[in-house]
Amino acid sequence: MGLGAGGVGRRAATVLALVVCGLALGVPAAFAGTYTWTGADSIPGWSSSDNWSPTDPSGTGNTLNFPALSGSCDTCTDTEMNLADLGVDFLNFTGSSYVIGTDGSNSLGLGSPGISATGSAAAVIATPLDLDGNQTWTITDSDLDVDGGFSNNSQGLSLNASLGSNGVIEFGASSDVGPVDITGASSADAGSSSIENGLVALDAGDDLNGSDGNPVAVSDVSLYAAQTGVSAASIGPLTATGAELLIGEPEAPTGGLDVDGGVTLDSGTELVMFEAGSGTTANIDFTQLSATGTVDLGGAQLLLAPVGGATACAALTVGQADQIVTTTGSVTGQFGNAANGAILAYPCSATTEEQFQINYLPSSVTATYEGTVPIPTPPPPTQATPTAPTATTSAPTVTSTTGATASASVNPNGLATTVEFQYGLTTAYGQTTAAQTIAAGTSPQTVTAPLTGLLPNSTYHLRVVAKNALGTSYGSDQTFKTPSDPPPPPPVLGKAVNVEPVSGTVLIKLPHGASLEDFQPSGLFALFAGPLVKGRGFTPLTEARQIPVGSQIDARQGTLAMITASTAKHKTYSGDFGGGLFGVLTQTRKQKGLTNLGLLEGSFPGAPSYANRCVATGKASIAAGAKHLSKSVVDLLKASAHGQFATKGKYGAATVRGTSFTIEDRCDGTFTTVQRGVVAVRDFATRRTITLHAGRSFLARR
């Protein structure tokens, strides 16, 4: 895979982030001198001052910049390091493809931080590097080939590295330093995807701590050891974590990796090796990992591939046992995807796969060729027997004070299925969305539907109903609450009053032709047809509303608060009313804002009336005298008010100013009881007005 002067540019479009650092990290605050390569001289030597700006470097502690040079100038970037005793702390490549050649007699002293290559730069450093300090190398979107290796006095220095974005760094011969630790920039890319972080390349005969015994650790990167030839690449004691060890290559499987010491793998690591031919020569007929210490396989994944990948089957001999792993020490652990005696199969054509049996011996791992077999045809998918659908109600999304979106997951279980949502103020629901049809299938599908005309400030119940030819399924009940509208504007004398629920259930019906939008801009008077509605056109009162004079109120199961306007500026009247059916009849300025409420009789089919409550008395009872009439209550109203309110029954009316009282329409007349304050009762039959104090009552007879 050697990069070489011409091979560096093959990866100019990749992105590599490589940081190599030693025991003492950090960039010096300043360097002795900064020199920039111009390549202006036709002679490539570093000793020519024409090739540098401002002049040629000398001494130690320098920064050398190698920028991107415009135009076509191969000789400009093909340089020769021919300066003696030159010391550099920072080699900075920012573009173009450079070759740092050697004159055969000089090495380059390299201190900290070391090397940086960015901007699609590529550099082949053929001059040996004489490390003078621990390194921090940064390689971004660039390639680096340390072809000249390191001088012997560099072995005491450690290298820590971070690779990223498919970059490449290649170590040449005699690359012996101290401990090496190379880590991928992204831990998310491990094993077979670690190449996304970067690639560390060793060609046949290349050496990274292969003779000095210093360890090499690679994490989340790809370590590539392959090239034509019998000679294997060599490396120091190796630890691989979440890495890919690629020994050989599909096009030329020859090659191997010799480890001067032990090998430690983990379950996140993948070991890729190749089988080539029927011979038994390691690194020629098959690739081999060879070590001199303990090899701990650690549950790593083994990929044993034929030459040509999935397009060509190797000419192997059945029963041929190749030692793919061998050591002078011992083998511990196993591959995570191959127990002892397991068969691993790899496609070598569209219809054929090669099989290998993996066996673990005390000091080796063998792969025995078992021959080729047809790739098994997967069985056709099992057709599930259709059943009734399954349905799950999801939490709805509230979209406004009067709207929401229902959602559910429905599996039709093999048959076309209709889906609808039921919703309402109780688990009796009462309202249903339009039916939807989903096609036959066996996978859950998401179904949604809009819910409109909801009441503000109300808790709703919702469930999905799914039905096919084999049955009906009901989703679980979900509850949600709509938000409140903004508060209503102040009441308008003679036109509108403000009401708000206090307790229980209160229903409201507007006069014919009226709309809440005429009185409360934010309001929407929705026709509710649920089970709580007792009369046509009535809807529950769930929040503070402004309603027009002439509205009807069903407070038989609850109480509401009412606020009315007065003739005085910024002054209002208020009261709590409940227990019966009544209407807001009139309110006039002439009566100083007096609000006239009236008990309702027979306001809708089934509503209380004299006809259905007092029928037992009949004409005979009436003729016999009022004292024989029933006391059955037709309608009533309980009131606690402050201000100008009058309540009219069928046979009498009560006018109050800060009073608590009850007025009842009974079969025998209109009966008024005062709990607090004073009430003026008008008897329609006698045309008298009676003043009642707390604790007193009066019957205006029919």
Number of strands: 56
Mean pLDDT: 84
> How many helical stretches?
4
Largest sheet strand order: 5-7-9-12-14-16-19-22-25-28
The protein's oligomeric status is single chain
Q: How does the overall form come out from the CA principal axes?
A: elongated
Structural class: mainly beta
Separation of the first and last Cα atoms: 114 Å
Strand content: over 45%
Regions with little confidence, pLDDT below 50 for 5+ residues = 1-31, 517-535, 617-626
Major beta-sheet overview:
10 strands, parallel
Report the radius of gyration as a whole number of Å. 47 Å
Helical residues, percent: under 10%
Put the structure in a nutshell.
The chain has 702 residues and is mostly beta strands. Helix content is 3%, strand content 45%. The strands form seven sheets. A ten-stranded parallel sheet has the order 5-7-9-12-14-16-19-22-25-28. Strands 1, 2, 3, 4, 6, 8, 10 and 11 form an eight-stranded mixed sheet that branches.
Topology diagram in text:
Blueprint: H1 4-7, E1 18-20, E2 33-37, E3 52-53, E4 62-66, H2 74-77, E5 78-81, E6 87-93, E7 97-102, E8 108-117, E9 122-125, E10 129-131, E11 137-139, E12 143-146, E13 159-163, E14 167-171, E15 180-184, E16 198-202, E17 207-208, E18 216-219, E19 222-225, E20 233-235, E21 238-241, E22 244-247, E23 256-259, E24 263-264, E25 270-275, E26 288-291, E27 295-296, E28 301-306, E29 321-327, E30 331-332, E31 343-347, E32 352-361, E33 364-374, E34 390-393, E35 397-398, E36 404-411, E37 417-424, E38 431-432, E39 436-438, E40 445-451, E41 459-468, E42 471-474, E43 478-481, E44 496-509, E45 539-540, E46 545-548, E47 552-565, E48 572-578, E49 581-587, E50 595-599, H3 610-613, H4 618-624, E51 633-648, E52 652-666, E53 669-676, E54 678-683, E55 688-693, E56 697-701
Parallel strand pairs: 2-4, 4-6, 5-7, 6-8, 7-9, 8-10, 8-11, 9-12, 12-14, 13-15, 14-16, 15-18, 16-19, 17-20, 18-21, 19-22, 20-23, 21-24, 22-25, 23-26, 24-27, 25-28, 26-29, 27-30, 50-51
Antiparallel strand pairs: 1-11, 2-3, 29-33, 31-32, 32-33, 34-36, 35-36, 36-40, 37-38, 37-39, 37-41, 41-42, 41-43, 44-45, 44-46, 44-47, 47-48, 47-49, 48-51, 49-50, 51-52, 52-53, 52-54, 53-56, 54-55
